[in-house]
Amino acid sequence: MPKASTKKSKPQSKKAKLSLKKNELKSYRKLLLERRKELMDEMGELMKEQVSSTPRDTSGDLSSHAFHMADQGTDAMEREMAFMFASKSGRLVYHIEEAIRRIDSGNYGLCAQCQKPISATRLKAVPHARLCIKCKESEEGRNSAGK
Question: Where are the domains of the chain?
Answer without folding.
Answer: 22-53+71-145
